[in-house]
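User: Predict structure, ligand zinc ion.
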Amino acid sequence: MKDQEKKTYSKQFSEEELKAKLDSESYHVLREKGTERPFTGQYYLNKDTGIYECKVCGNGIFHSSKKYDSGCGWPSFTEPLSKDAIDVKMDYSHFMIREEILCGQCGSHLGHRFPDGPKDQGGIRYCINSVSMDFKKA
Ligand SMILES: [Zn+2]
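Assistant: Predicted complex:
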């Protein structure tokens, strides 16, 4: 492990709690910063109205009104539910420089953000793994 900025998140979970709560794919993505295969995610094509929550802690992270069809293979959003809903960290893994998106409450890995979102909606694409989220239909 490289030195990383240690941030204390308001919600903390033990490994036992996490393993009991999450299936193995969700655990891999949320806690080991994995990525689900594109075009396979449960919420990729979801167009229902509601709130997307962090699967670990239930923190509301995105609203369906900010979801758009980016064609990238993962659920994509133009902005989070609130500024504090998420945390952003630089990610230098896989020979790329990316901005990692983490849950603002528990620090679990959600996805990445890229500067190629719709120009008329801020120009940012939040690219989020379906398995990182639960969807609460309105
Ligand atoms: Zn969380």
